[in-house]
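Appendix B: complex inputs.
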Amino acid sequence: MDSINIEGTPKTPEVSFDAKSGQIEIKGRSIPENSIEFYKPLVDWLDKYADIAQGVVNVVIQLEYFNTSSSKCILDVFKKLENIHNKNKIDVVINWYYEEDDEDMLEAGEDYQSILKIPFKMVEISE
Amino acid sequence: MKADIHSLYEKSKKGDLVATHEGDINSDLITQYLSGVESSLSEAGELSKIIRKVYNILVEALQNLFHHLEIPPKEYLDSVNLPETCRYAFCTLIKEGKGAYKVTCGNFVSNKYIQFLRDRIEQLNYLSAAELKELYKRILNNDEFSSKGGGGLGFIEMARMSGQKLGYDFVKYDESYSFFILEIRIG
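Resulting structure:
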């Protein structure tokens, strides 16, 4: 299965989805006007990945900014990961990074954590 | 006499102006506006947590204009020499004090949407921070996107980030249109 590697732009994040290692990363800014267009290939990839995923899936979400339309798409990504966790009976851990003074980003991670039933690890980054 | 829209824009600029735009709203303009504000606030030595709040609110405010504004009546565009495809709106950012800012956006709306918008804003202004958070989570998880690609969360996010009541006004333009002013305060 091909991996996904997308470079970041001022409005869209850097993405790296690697089926072999099970490393899933979204980093940077996610503030596109049309977030569905950006996230649909990622969600589709996770659907296919569910057929072969094994071992441990390590997810890194390190966002500086995300808009509200991305927030729904990010939840879709998490729901696909939750499905992989339930269907394949494998460990999926979401590492949610936030800068030490960014309470809003920490709270956003906690909002997701309260909606989903997969393990979240809140990781503070020093500025 | 029709409402003087330009004077509403001029009024929104009074004070310590950080950023402003009047005219067409498109994706490139939004990128430019956001990057300009980020640089200005950073160069002025503003705290990163305040810059983030201002940035987040501006993203939602500008993209709300991008997705939902109505093309102004032709009569208005003619009167200010703008092409009839111009998606006219304005957005200003004023510094009101130490760590305190005000975002003002203005755009035309059809009179038939006024009640809906008014009810929506009043509802958010009535809710506590905890209630806003619960509402945000409920709508985040409802799997619905509007036909315009919005998730229905923009106003809630602006209210949450601001922590203050959203200010608004509708200035009647004619029988079909009004001009909608939205004010969001930070700090």
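DSSP finds seven helices and five strands in chain B.
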